[in-house]
Amino acid sequence: MDTNPIHQNHPAEQTQPDNLRLSLPQDFTATRTWPEEIIVEPSRLAWTLWGDTEGDITAAYSGDKRPKVQTFVHEGQRFTNMGGSEYSVHCYPLLSPEHYAGNGKVKYSYEGETVIYERQKFMLGPKVTFSSRALTLEEEISLLRRMYAYGGYFVSGRTYQEMLLDFQEDDRTREGRKVAVAQELTRKMFPKTQPEMLAELGKAPGASGVDTAQLGLPGM
Q: What is the pTM of this model?
């Protein structure tokens, strides 16, 4: 039920003076050092499963839309998201064909593919993984509560305490979540239904962001 910086030059990259690099639109700059991983705020990778607003990186998922792609911007550079998890996704910068410095398509990668964004053709540069920073204890606890409040079949007919015990016993539960689970299990009272948890969170069934269809699942 789970998942959770090193910099490396791409072999095909070349050096380029800063003044020349800055003279080109950043979307078109291939001759730069691409980090293997970039750490970002969790909200940028948020899904809409747990009452969150969808993150800009998540919204740019294009794995099933190629050659057309959606994009997000990080430090002035456009990227597209080709998939991953709630905590880490594989992304590729959009580069103009005339400034792409790679060797074409790369095995087991989308690098070198031609894509279309706003009716313009681009080539995908080297893969860059965007990962969420570690959640704080407070954020982990908030997530647990929202997972119960907005969850579907996996919490159907179950109390919040029962969900917590499942996470505690699951070997796949990451360490940060285990700490949050242990903290939550010290509560004196546990919501027994999703509407009770929604009330604790200050939400009400039918309010914005609350999936009333899920609350109507058997056992709710």
A: 0.74
Q: Which of 187, 188, 152, 184 is nearest to 168 (CA)?
A: 184
Q: What are the residue boundaries of the structural domains of the chain, listed by start? A: 18-132, 137-205
| Rounded Cα gap, residues 178 and 192, in angstroms | 21
Identify the three-state secondary structure at position 219: coil
**Average pLDDT score over residue span 51-72:** 95
d(CA 194, CA 210) in angstroms, rounded, equals: 11
Residues 6+ apart with CB under 8 A from 190: 159, 160, 161, 164
Instruction: Look at residue 212 in the predicted model and tell me its pLDDT.
Output: 41
Distances from the Cα of 20 to the Cα of 15, 169, 194, angstroms: 11, 56, 57
- Output the six-digit token pair for 17: 């003076």
Q: Coil, strand, or helix at residue 20?
A: helix
Neighbours of 143 (CB within 10 A): 18
CA distance 36 to 69: 21
Chain segment 191-215, per-residue pLDDT in tens: 999 999 999 998 655 444 444 444 4
Residues 150-165, mean pLDDT to the nearest whole number: 92
SS3 per-residue string spanning 202-217: CCCCCCCCCCHHHHCC
- Give Rg (Cα) of the chain: 21
* Cα 38 to the center of its chain, rounded Å: 12
**Residue for token digits 């509407």?**
195
Cβ-contact 187, 170 below 8 angstroms:
no
Distance of CA 142 to CAs 36, 136, 208, Å?
A: 30, 10, 18
